[in-house]
């Protein structure tokens, strides 16, 4: 009986031990599965967190780009407004510039008309002088230089060598010149005396070539005055040897340089008065 009792107890303990090991194994397997699930969930959670952070960064970048685009759009709108204002202002300035150019063009046209009128008078004056004085005499030249009409008379036609006494031939020629000048009341006559470079020693009242050139000019001026030209329209000038036509290297060249020029030119003050009058007319029209 005692042996049977011991055997029963041992059997009970063995059965209990077998049941506990099996349950432990099951629990251990469940723990492993649970740990695997936890690990998987952790990995997924980390991936989600990473994706969320990336999405947040992307969203922030998009927000910044959107803000930049909005600012750029505002800048473009402002630039468009500024450009519109500048275009309008530019158009106004261009219109003013065109008006100014029209006014200047009108002034130039008026002045050109005045100069053309002067040129027409100059041409008529040359024609009159050539008709009166003649154009076939090699010692008499009628020409235009820089808009000024002049008569160049050779020294041998008017004066004797070293003298300022006018010859009879000179009186005849100057009479024709005086006729033309008197027919042009808006013109003046300036007489220039020229010599060669041969030194002129003191001879009576004459001191040198300067003195000779001036006295020849004043002699012709006096003769023109005697022929009826108003003295207020006459100018006497001596140029001595310092404006030669050709080098004073030969007797022929020195003869060419000994000459008298009579310049017939418009009265400068009247010419400027005409210009000033045109300018005032244009200013009045502009107002």
Notes on the protein architecture:
This protein is 68% helix and 13% strand. With 287 residues, it is α+β, with helices and mostly antiparallel strands. It has a domain at 115-274: OmpA-like domain (60s Ribosomal Protein L30, Chain: A). Strands 1-2-5-3-4 form a 5-stranded mixed β-sheet. The longest helix has 132 residues, at 2-133. The termini are far apart. 15% of the residues are buried. The mean pLDDT is 79.
Topology record:
Elements: H1 2-133, E1 140-145, E2 148-154, H2 155-158, H3 168-182, E3 187-194, H4 209-226, E4 234-240, H5 251-257, E5 259-266, H6 268-286
Parallel strand pairs: 3-4
Antiparallel strand pairs: 1-2, 2-5, 3-5
Domain OmpA-like: 146-268
Pfam families: OmpA
Protein name: OmpA family protein
Low-confidence stretches: none
Q: What integer value in Å does the Rg equal?
A: 59 Å
- As for the CATH topology of the domain at 115-274, it is 60s Ribosomal Protein L30, Chain: A
Give the percentage of residues in beta strands: 5-15%
Silhouette: rod-shaped
């Amino acid at each position: 009986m005692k042996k049977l009792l011991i055997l029963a107890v041992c059997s009970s303990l063995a059965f209990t031990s077998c049941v506990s090991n099996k349950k432990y194994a099951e629990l251990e397997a469940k723990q492993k599965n649970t740990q695997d699930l936890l690990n998987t969930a952790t990995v997924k959670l980390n991936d989600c967190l990473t994706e969320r952070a990336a999405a947040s960064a992307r969203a922030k970048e998009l927000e910044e780009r959107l803000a930049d685009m909005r600012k750029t759009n505002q800048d473009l709108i402002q630039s468009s407004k500024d450009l519109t204002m500048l275009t309008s202002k530019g158009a106004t300035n261009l219109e003013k510039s065109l008006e100014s150019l029209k006014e200047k063009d009108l002034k130039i046209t008026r002045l050109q008309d005045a100069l053309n009128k002067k040129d027409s008078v100059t041409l008529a004056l040359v024609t009159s002088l050539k008709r009166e004085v003649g154009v076939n005499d090699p010692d008499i030249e009628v020409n235009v230089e820089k808009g000024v009409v002049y008569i160049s008379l050779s020294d041998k036609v008017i004066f004797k060598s070293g003298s300022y006494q006018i010859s009879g031939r000179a009186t005849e020629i100057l009479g024709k010149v005086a006729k033309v000048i008197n027919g042009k009341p808006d013109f003046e006559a300036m007489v220039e005396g020229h010599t060669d470079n041969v030194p002129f020693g003191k001879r009576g009242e004459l001191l040198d070539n300067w003195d000779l050139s001036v006295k020849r000019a004043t002699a012709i001026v006096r003769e023109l005055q005697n022929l009826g030209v108003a003295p207020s329209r006459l100018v006497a000038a001596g140029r001595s040897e310092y404006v030669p036509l050709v080098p004073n290297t030969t007797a022929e060249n020195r003869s060419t340089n000994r000459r008298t020029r009579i310049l017939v030119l418009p009265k400068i003050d009247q010419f400027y008065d005409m210009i000033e009058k045109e300018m005032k007319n244009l200013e009045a029209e502009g107002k």
